[in-house]
Write a structure and sequence with these properties.
By secondary structure, the protein is mainly beta. Helices cover 6% and strands 43% of the residues. The chain is built from three helices and 17 strands. A hairpin with a 4-residue loop joins strand 2 and strand 3.
């Protein structure tokens, strides 16, 4: 069975149309985790739902996890478009006519899918070196931000229209290790974006790369808030135990 078909969205974002002057970014540095914490029988799915924090006038995301359920597989759509992404590349994707995606209070009708494990909005990115600064430099959904090569061993980046959602899958891609130039082949991970702003990230065979990959969400506001003299809002998760089960 697949998570998409049988699990179900746990609630809706609801207030994504309320734009906010500042937002709270979030990221999970995999360098802080143990090998095997991501994928397989460990972390299967992260769910992120937007909500408006009226006290701080920000848009934040409620994050929960599905873990330890080996019966859940990623939903690999039977019909998809193979994106023309080379190594350290990005593909511009126009969303379906009846679909717009709300992200940190803004609606988007297109996006840029990076071969290095992320989606950006407003501008493409080819960065393959994960860090807090690079993650937060653009409006970004980092599914597995690291040095990813989809061109080896039959790998592919796929886009699919699921009617109520869209899916991007990095399927059978290769992760490169910058220290010793070794490679981890046949890695598969995915994000599903829903019309209400809910985000799923799924990990089937994605292992922790030694390069310190990043999972997270960025409003792209870090540089702007620093220029205005305001501390950029960011939440860092360094332990999977601190994320509640869905």
């Amino acid at each position: 069975q697949s998570v998409f078909e049988d699990y179900g969205v746990l609630g809706t974002g609801g207030d994504h149309d309320l734009a906010a002057p500042t937002n709270t970014d979030w990221y999970l540095p995999l360098a802080d985790l143990a090998v095997g914490d991501i994928g397989g029988d460990s972390l299967n799915v992260l769910e992120m739902r937007p909500h408006r924090n009226s006290n701080a006038d920000t848009i934040e995301y409620n994050i929960c996890k599905v873990s330890g359920h080996s019966e859940y597989n990623l939903y690999i759509p039977p019909q998809y478009t193979a994106l023309p992404t080379g190594d350290d590349d990005a593909a511009h994707v126009q969303l379906p006519d009846d679909f717009s995606f709300p992200f940190y209070g803004e609606e988007f009708s297109d996006m840029f899918v990076g071969s290095n494990g992320y989606i950006t909005f407003e501008a493409a990115d080819m960065n393959y070196l994960p860090s807090e600064q690079s993650h937060r430099s653009k409006k970004r959904i980092s599914v597995m931000f690291t040095d990813v090569d989809p061109t080896e061993s039959g790998g592919e980046v796929q886009f699919a229209d699921l009617n109520s959602a869209v899916a991007v899958t990095w399927r059978n891609v290769t992760l490169r290790q910058p220290d010793d130039h070794s490679k981890i082949p046949n890695q598969t991970f995915q994000t599903i974006l829903f019309k209400d702003g809910t985000i799923w990230m799924g990990f089937e065979s994605a292992l922790q790369p030694e390069s310190g990959a990043i999972i997270g969400l960025s409003s792209g506001a870090a540089e702007r808030t620093q220029q205005q003299g305001k501390p950029p809002g960011v939440q860092v998760t360094r332990n999977l135990d601190s994320i509640q089960e869905c």
